[in-house]
Amino acid sequence: MAAKASSFKNWCTENISPQSWTRICLKRVDDIRGKGYTLKEMEDLTPDIEMDGELLDSLNEALSELYEMTVDEALLATH
To answer: At 24, phi and psi to the nearest 5?
Structure first.
């Protein structure tokens, strides 16, 4: 399943902290760059990024490693 990066970022901001998205992206910088995005693009999200399942899984894994939690992909649709 794919999701908008802004949905993941908003979820992190609301449920953890405003800095959590940046930490997650830094932890997975190689995967982000491998998909052709920069950290600045992931932070600004203008235009928004449609993440494929692979990148979404990678960021969710980083979320788990850093904060011992995950986000259900279905929840991202509401953010």
So the answer is: -65, -45
Measure the CA–CA gap between 20 and 69, rounded to whole angstroms.
12
Here the tokens at position 67 are 């904060």
Q: Is the CB of residue 73 less than 8 Å from the CB of residue 3?
A: yes
| Separation CA 12–CA 6 (nearest Å) | 10
| Average pLDDT along the chain, 79 residues, taken 10 residues at a time | 88 95 98 96 93 94 96 73
14 burial (CB, 10 Å; 0-12 / 13-18 / 19+) is: exposed
Which ranges of the chain would DSSP assign to H, the alpha helix?
A: 5-15, 20-27, 29-34, 39-44, 53-67, 73-76
Q: What is the pTM of this model?
A: 0.90
